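ESCALATION

Customer reports they have been waiting on this structure for their group meeting. Please prioritize. Original submission:
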Amino acid sequence: MNAGVLFDAPGPKARRRHLLYSVLSGVAIVAAIGWWLWRLDENGQLAYEKWEAFVTPSYIRVLLVDGLLQTLKMAALAIVCAVAFGFLFGVGKLSDHRWVRWPSWLVVEFFRAVPVLLLMIFVWYTLGIADDRSSFRAVVIALTLYNGSVLAEVLRAGILAVPRGQSEAAYALGMRKTQVVSIVMLPQAVKIMLPAIISQCVVALKDTALGIAITAPGLTLVARQIYLEENNRVPTMLVVATLYISVNLLLTALATWLQRRYVGEKRLEVPMVGDADTRGKVPA
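Update from on-call: job pushed to the front of the queue and completed.
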C-alpha cells in the first residue's frame, strides 16, 4: 500500500518545519553528548589510566573469553530451551483435553509472573550454591522458564492469528488435529511470531546480566572484577554496555533478514471492476 494513501505528502512549509525540527533535535543530541563527556572529564573518568585496562591484552582476553563468551553460551542455551519450552506449553494451552490445557496454563502463568532475578536465586539455592557450575545452570534454567513462558503465549497467539479457513480446509481433507496443528498451523504461526521470537532472544541475552547476583560467569561478573581492581567503574560499564549493544544489534539485523527472507512484504492489489482477467477472483 502506497504511503500517499495513509497521509498527504508534506508541502513546502511542512518540509521546512521538518528540517528545522531535525536540525534542532540534532543540535540538542550533540549538546547532551558534549555535556555528558564534559562531566566525565571533569570527574576524571576520561583519564588514560581509567581506560588502560581495555587496551591491555590480558584484560581484553578475560573480558571476551571469560565474559562475553560465557554470556553468549548462557543466552544460546536459554534461547534454545525456551523455544522448545514455548512450543510444548503453547500447544498444550490449545489442547482440547483439560488435563493438558489447565496444567499448561498454570505453568505458563506462574513463570511469567515470577521476576527473573528471584527465579535465578530460587533455582541457584535449589541446585546447591556450593557447586561451581550451579550458578551457570541457574541462569539458563531461570531464563528458559521465563522466556519459554512468554514464547508459549506468543505461539498461542500466532496459531490463533492463522485464518480459520486454513484449519477448516485441513479438517475437510480428513486431517486429525495433531496433523492440522503441526502441518498447517505451526508453519504459518512461526512466520507470524518470528519477530517476537528474535525480540525475546534479545531479552534473554540482556537478562544474563542479572546473573551477577548469584555470581554466575559472564560480562557483569568480569566487569565487577575489573572495576574493583582498577577503580574504573564508569569506563568498565561503558565498555560492557557497548558489547551488549553490539550483540543486540547483530540479533536485530538477523531478525530483519529473517523477516525479509521468510515472511516478506505482501502488497494488497485490488482488481479493477470489469477486468476480465481478475473478475471473480479473490484479491491476493
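Sent to customer with the following note: DSSP finds eleven helices and no strands in the chain.
Escalation resolved.
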